[in-house]
Predict the structure.
Amino acid sequence: MPELETTDDVRARMSRQRSRDTGIEVALRRELHRLGLRYRVHRRPVRGVRREADVVFGPTRVAVFVDGCFWHGCPEHGTWPKRNGEFWRAKIEANRARDANTDLVLAEAGWAAVRVWEHEDPAVAAERVREAVLGRRGRLA
């Protein structure tokens, strides 16, 4: 990956970015709980695979990932920074590739991955997750 040269302001701003328990994660979990679903947070769905899901439904093998529009290259809201553009493009593309690989690894292990963008309405996203969980109940007994 290309070398990153940042200013102190950029470094400080990036260090304040939360990686867990973000507003959308908490809102999504609240909606999932309201729908009667119980789950674990910030767990590795598959042992030996260093990928952590934001919400995990173990019995039905559903892993939920809440992806930030900038960090994961949202096709609707993602942006390409002009400063250090080569670095950020490589970083975001690597994140996308890792996300695709994670989905593949989970599928091979019998898990379903559900991806939620940070801009999605939490209630709508929670309903999509609920459908995935309910759709897998009984099939994995």
Observations:
- The beta strands are 40-43, 53-57, 62-67, 112-117.
- Residues 46 and 109 are 7 Å apart (CA to CA).
- The first strand starts at residue 40 and ends at 43.
- The mean pLDDT is 88.
